[in-house]
Structure formats: structure tokens, C-alpha cells
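Show me a record, fold above all:
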Amino acid sequence: MKDIVPDAAKRLAVAGIGSARLDARLLWDHAQKTGQDFGTLVARREQREPVAYILGRKEFWSLDFAVGPGVLVPRPDTETLIEEALRIVPDRKARLRIADLGAGSGALLVAALKELPNATGIGFEASAKAFEWARDNANRLMPERAQLRLADWNSADGPFDLIFCNPPYIPSADIESLDPDVSHFEPSAALDGGPDGLSAYRALAGLLPRILVQGGHALLEIGLGQAQAMGTLFQALEIVRLAPDLSGIPRCVILRKP
């Protein structure tokens, strides 16, 4: 039995998985807790199915979110948006109205409401599959203050004090070059940002000024090399800050409505 996990790690390494040892241990622990067949779990990971999909969960902001096919897996870099929101909100007990545009798993909305106990929020998600994940997570983790709507961004009816958005920002031609875990499994609608990766930001540039309160803030995740374009796109809003992620890459643009 003692060789099972190391052997599984070797199989995953051969499959090109850099986190092979960690993944093997996580899958072993999951098999012990759930009674699922360890070999079957390893075989799924060998095919590059994301660990989060296999486990059915992903931690974000110290909260456990249910995830699976049809929804983007929350990333640690996205926590930058929550960190920056707490930096700009002067009173965490204020009765804020929050929106999460393209809510995905609901991670940003629920995490923000966890830190802002008197706030309420609405998540807008156009994908029926992702909406189900977001709705279930909100009902389990934040049932009293989070609402989810199966709708696209344009139905957001503001005004909102605080808006979060992790839009699709990968240039279309770059999708296939991503890790197979992402390109073959996670929803393309949550990844594909159009020819230059900026299509969603152009749409947001017209929407955000209409649904933000005066003095309100929007926090948007951005991709590598996209920081310079933000000033051109969001001329109706003030760029407060471009915040880096843990790797020092600009990851979050903080916008304010003057």
C-alpha cells in the first residue's frame, strides 16, 4: 500500500503534470474519505481533468466552493480583487450593494459578502451550468445576502457601490496553448476574450458608468500585458490603482466613478 501514492505520482508526472506528487496525495485523501476508487481518480487526472473537478471543490478566500464541469475553477490570483476591495472600503460595516458580473462559481460575491457583513449582493451569470454552481454555493455559504440571476451583464440594474468582474481575457488564438487542464476542460466562454483579449472590457466600459453609484468602485481582473489598455478603454472612470498578484503581475484594475 505504501507504494500506491508514489506510483500514482510517477504516472501523473509522465502525463506532464508538474504538481504530480501533490495531486496524487490529494486524490488519495479524497479516495479514503469518499470510498471512491483511487485508480479511477488517478486515471482521470492523467487525462488532465482538473483536480478541482475530480474533488468537486476548490478553496477560495478560506471558503470551500463546489465546482465541476461548466464553471471556471477559482484561482488564488483572483483573491487580489477581494484584497483590494477591503483596501478601498472605508467602513466594512456599511450597507453596500455589490454586483458580481459573470459570477462563475460565485467565489468573488460570496467572499466579498463574508468580509462585508452588512452588504448584499447579486451575481449575474449567463451560463446555465455555471449559474447552477453559483446558486448552490451562494445558498450554502451565504443564503441570506447573496442572490443569483441567470442573466448576462446587460441586465444588471444598479446602482451598485461595488462591482467585481473576472471577465474572459485570453486572446482567442492563445486558448489552445494553455494547459490541457484549462483548454480541454474549463468553459471557453469564461476564457475567450476575443482576438485581442479585450472584448469583455469594451463591453464593461459602456456598462460600468451606468450602474455604479457616484464614488463607487469596480474591480476587474486583467491578464498579462493588458494593464496599459485599461486607461484607453475606461476613459469615463478613474483608474485608482493597478494591483499586482503574488507574482508581481498586474492582476486587478480598480476603477472609480467620479
About this structure: The mean pLDDT is 96. Residues 9 and 220 are 37 Å apart (CA to CA).
